[in-house]
Design a protein that fits this description.
single chain, 339 residues, alpha/beta, 8-stranded mixed beta sheet, 4-stranded antiparallel beta sheet, 12 helices, 14 strands, 32% helix, globular, nucleotide-binding, ABC_transporter-like_ATP-bd, ATP hydrolysis activity, transport
């Protein structure tokens, strides 16, 4: 992995599982004449390690249910990791109390997927933006807070005179702009964006995406961008992390990944992108079903659908390996030069 001292955020061997066993009485079962306790878990994240470098936009992609949003929420402290460690500028933060996390809350902000649910319908836009500024800047006067609110509203293309309106008076795109303004209001360094444009019309997506890119340049922001839209990744991302069933398959610079994907799953994803070029890669149709995250397959989690599988793939979990071109791939076939 990248040297820890150079990165803004480091994720090390992250695991997250959710119990689906119910309460204690639901877990008790009779087997062979004995009363036993049976517990089942959804294994959402399985040993993910990532470094987010200052000033970059690291995009995490994968199909629904692969664990990318769980990674985002765990990094932000909204979920507690089952195992593993998270560092911010070299300081471990996953084991801190709410009070100890306060200095990091100002540096780390999140933009949520659904702009219709992430804004409080009982608060005006002015109140929505005033709350985080006042909480994190106790010394600011009311006039300074008003000026700050007007500044961030203008920065996201929202008229400051709309501050007395409520969120239901705005369209989805306008609401997402307000959500971005709320994240920018406390001058963060690091923003986690969890599919921030997927709930918007296509005509509005480009506007919001360009707004986020402009904010990145002007404020030197670092993004962890969660998405399933590969067209967005190609336009927005500095590097791309591909996830499958809670594990990291491939990590590479954006241009490198789109020009020569190495992992079989990444190759299948890239082949599905509609393109007009004559020399586009042939569409790769994966066979089989996505395994359940409750009972993970042995070895490589992708081996049941991989066209290059061998016995080692079924038996041994591949490690993320750094290749000469800077790509990191978790694949026995690549390691053995079969691919």
């Amino acid at each position: 992995m990248t040297e820890q001292n150079n990165s803004l955020v480091q994720i090390r061997d992250l695991y997250k599982r959710f119990s689906i066993s119910g309460d204690l009485l639901d877990q008790l079962q009779f087997k062979g004449g004995k009363l036993i306790r049976h517990q089942e878990y959804v294994h959402a994240i399985n040993g993910v390690s990532l470094d987010v470098m200052p000033g970059e936009a690291l995009c995490v992609v994968g199909e629904s249910g692969c664990g990318k949003s769980t990674v985002a929420r765990t990094v932000m402290g909204l979920l507690t990791p089952t195992a593993g460690q998270i560092f911010y500028r070299g300081e471990r933060i996953d084991n801190l109390s709410d009070k100890q996390m306060l200095p990091y809350r100002k540096k780390m902000q999140m933009i949520f997927q659904n702009p219709y649910a992430s804004l409080n319908p009982r608060m005006t836009i002015m109140e929505t933006l005033r709350e985080p500024i006042r909480f994190h800047n106790r010394a600011m006067s009311s006039g300074e807070i008003r000026d700050k609110i007007a500044e961030v509203m203008l920065a996201v293309g929202v008229d400051p005179s709309w501050g007395e309106r409520y969120s239901h008076e705005f369209s989805g795109g306008q609401r997402q702009r307000i959500s971005i303004a709320r994240a920018l209001a406390v001058d963060p360094e690091f923003i986690v964006a969890d599919e921030p444009i997927s709930a918007l019309d296509v005509s509005i997506q480009a506007q919001v995406l360009n707004l986020m890119m402009d904010a990145q340049k002007e404020r030197n922001l670092t993004y962890l961008f969660i998405t399933h839209d590969l067209a967005v990744v190609e336009h927005f991302g500095t590097r791309v992390a591909v996830m499958y069933l809670g594990t990291l398959c491939e990590l590479a610079p954006t241009k490198q990944l789109f020009s020569s994907p190495r992992h079989p799953y990444t190759q299948a994803l890239m082949s599905a992108i509609p393109r007009l070029e004559d020399d586009r890669p042939d569409y790769i149709k994966l066979t089989g079903e996505v395994p359940t995250p409750v009972n993970l397959p042995s070895g490589c989690v992708f081996h049941g659908r991989c066209p290059h599988v061998n016995e080692r793939c079924k038996r041994e979990i591949p490690a993320l390996t750094l290749l000469q071109d800077g790509t990191q791939v978790a694949c026995h076939g690549v390691e053995e030069n079969r691919l």
